[in-house]
Amino acid sequence: HEEEENMAAWLLGINTLKIQPFKLPTLGPGDVRVRMKAVGICGSDVHYLKTLRCADFVVKEPMVIGHECAGIIEEVGSEVKSLVPGDRVALEPGISCWRCYHCKEGRYNLCPDMKFFATPPVHGSLANQVVHPADLCFKLPENVSLEEGAMCEPLSVGVHACRRANIGHETNVLIMGAGPIGLVTLLAARAFGAPRIVIVDVDDNRLSVAKEVGADETIKVSTSIQDVSKDVEQILKTMGGARVDVTFDCAGFNKTISTALSSTRSGGRVCIVGMGHHEVTVPLTPAAAREVDLIGVFRYKNTWPLCLEFLSSGKIDVKPLITHRFGFSQQEVEEAFETSARGGSAIKVMFNL
């Protein structure tokens, strides 16, 4: 690899991406060098491109973008025993410290010193090659493609949310939002055994995809906060007498969280997965009076083995969510991000490197 200059997609400013050289760090004894083959575009990547920030994370200097990824091992460190060159792997993008209280408790996703691909100031993975810890690279089963491997990252959010909400064979589920995260949460909830899943969105195309990938019913709603009561009535009617045990809010807006809290049965759970607004105003007091539990979700922990099991066994099929594919040229990188930002028919935009 000395002869070949490693290139990556750098975020240089608002709406400014450029493929430039990316010098790799030295390969440590526990590291592997991976040639990237599939990298997906996440909503956070688009936020960074459009505003140079996502939630409290702000891009202050040029940064390599991308974190949903899979590739092929090219070189392993001296102490790596689990992987060899040629292995196809999916990469978990967050490196936690393993020393803090959260890491020792097993909730390493909450580590305050997490180094996460393409979360400033850490560089991401939309590059020819990256160096990453071997224990965060998971070998793909033979029947799981590299694109599916890259999809383990968004799917992990849905899997972690289902674990947090204790989804099982007696849990009826409502999902607010049929974007990429709403759809992977739908797939995960079905794999966890949820008997009835209803999904809500404002977009007909996304609702049709949700129906195709396994939603029992879909509901189109407006964006107006004034329509919450009407939406709740429609949701409960659509559930067909089944109570909403758990609602996943995969949008994170005033209206969606308000609808979620009001639709969920007394003693049920609302899981906040999406982060559309930094601050929201919602009817917490009535929900508290009905003992509706509010559960937060941040990234994931220990999800890749289960995601790969779901994909390998056929319990989950993420292929219908990959709607657009691009190569790794300057023009295609720009087109891919424009396609993802427009939304519409685009669900998951994937780079094939």
The number of distinct helices, counting runs of at least 4 residues, comes to 11
Catalogue the unreliable spans: none
Q: Mind telling me the C-alpha Rg?
A: 20 Å
**CATH architecture descriptor of the largest domain:** Alpha-Beta Complex
Summarize the topology.
Blueprint (H helix, E strand, L loop, with lengths): L6 E7 L2 E6 L9 E10 L2 H9 L1 E2 L2 E2 L4 E2 L3 E9 L11 E4 L2 E2 L5 H5 L9 E2 L12 E5 L3 E3 L6 H5 L1 H13 L8 E4 L3 H12 L5 E5 L2 H9 L4 E4 L7 H11 L7 E4 L4 H10 L5 E4 L11 H6 L3 E4 L7 H10 L8 E5 L3 H13 L5 E5 L1
Parallel strand pairs: 13-14, 13-16, 14-15, 16-17, 17-18, 19-20
Antiparallel strand pairs: 1-2, 1-6, 3-7, 3-11, 3-20, 4-5, 7-8, 8-12, 9-10
